[in-house]
């Protein structure tokens, strides 16, 4: 009904204006006045009308300009717009990620928004006129904040939309920090019908306007349009405490991440994209083999993937019995490139648990290495009986069967072909919703339980962890957790490959001196481990600061 009224009034004003100018044109013609004067009069009326409109509605002009500029680089998706009341006082409270958060909120909101900002920024002479035109409310820390909070309450009582970032500062880690309670004091003086609307901004961490590392900015630099999500939650009472508000903002964070997951590629596609960004960058190293750069690692995995696929044409799942090493990582990625679901077998579990995992995942082919099988046999694991009736692929045999011509031609393809063509020619695992891996429990509490994880599940965990780590250009990951370990598989293997971080591997996480030597040799800066594993470094006299 209201929309019809507005449209009818708009049409009436347009028709009245056209009729008025038609009469004016006829009068000018009868009076013999030159048409140039009529054009000048119309232009003057238009300029006066435009100036008056800008004077009365400066936020509409700013919103139009912002939308034009921002949408050239960002694709802004708004979720939960129906949760924003069409009228009445509204206090928007959400996370603060970058210098352009205010612009995203203003673009997302159909209603004009007044922002609360620090007084020392508001008072800068070259910006003050702009902030004043937008109706911003300056605030300062300490006793002077009460006046600003009173102004916030006044605007809310007048039916305005006010946005305040309760963290009080731009995030330095991309995560929602502690919420200050100043908004609670403002709401005490607001009318009972004023509502709080929580919101969450996703997609700006890693942008040029955030405080993320330069490395993360390079990783998150989208070639065309950067996707930004503004998610509004359901309205809350004005007396909502900070702990409840934080939970509601987190709910919107979960919602926005679910939306972001829909755009994530599969693991092998993401790895190819990462390699093509820096094919000569260091990628893999361990204590037994020579280091590989990103291009060499992808070449080796493509060669293995071709053979994995030919040896298991009618099989959906491949089992891998390999330690944390360059060979183990390459075999994992080769399995994904071949379009197979991988299962890293827990070689520390009992014989019965391993047999159960093989049966549950319907594994008919197992990839391993002769040298590793010998070590497991020495530890008392009957590998031969465990793999009886299975097709066993030894990496040493595959390596011996690769010709020099195939190595060179594949390497040239990796270096010369664009990412999209490499994916089309060599990547069979392109369905992000397909199961990428099955991770089994140790079986200490009965039969081992398998968890099926899709490419999208793992990619979301990788991106979330990467945002938290906020890595630098000189960071190196120390990978010592087993590949069958959920954290070892996702964070110390897949994350470095997808995010372009060098990785140093050591097969035994309980070998504290060996891990420490690898850390010193490769200058590792990031290492993960369980509390029991990390405790070994404190208790081992062989681990010294200058190893």
3D architecture notes:
The structure is a single chain. By secondary structure, the protein is of the alpha/beta class. It has three domains: 53 residues; 200 residues, 3-Layer(aba) Sandwich (Glycerol-3-phosphate (1)-acyltransferase), CATH 3.40.1130.10; 273 residues, ANL, N-terminal domain (Rossmann fold), CATH 3.40.50. It contains 23 helices and 19 strands. The strands form four sheets. Strands 1, 2, 3, 4, 5, 6, 7 and 8 form an eight-stranded mixed beta sheet that branches. Strands 10-9-18-17-19 form a five-stranded mixed beta sheet, sandwiched between helices. Helix 7 packs across helix 8. 39% of the residues are buried.
Features of the shown structure:
single chain; 547 residues; alpha/beta; Glycerol-3-phosphate (1)-acyltransferase; Rossmann fold; eight-stranded mixed sheet; five-stranded mixed sheet; 19 strands
| Euclidean distance between termini CA atoms | 77 Å
Can you say what the CATH homologous superfamily of the largest domain is? ANL, N-terminal domain
Major β-sheet profile? 8 strands, mixed
- What is the overall silhouette? elongated
Q: How much helix is in the residues?
A: 40-55%
CATH hierarchy, class of the largest domain: Alpha Beta
Any guess at the CATH architecture of the largest domain? 3-Layer(aba) Sandwich
Number of domains: 3
Overall mean confidence score, pLDDT:
90
Number of strands: 19
Task: Give the count of helical stretches.
Answer: 23
Strand content: 15-25%
CATH topology type of the largest domain? Rossmann fold
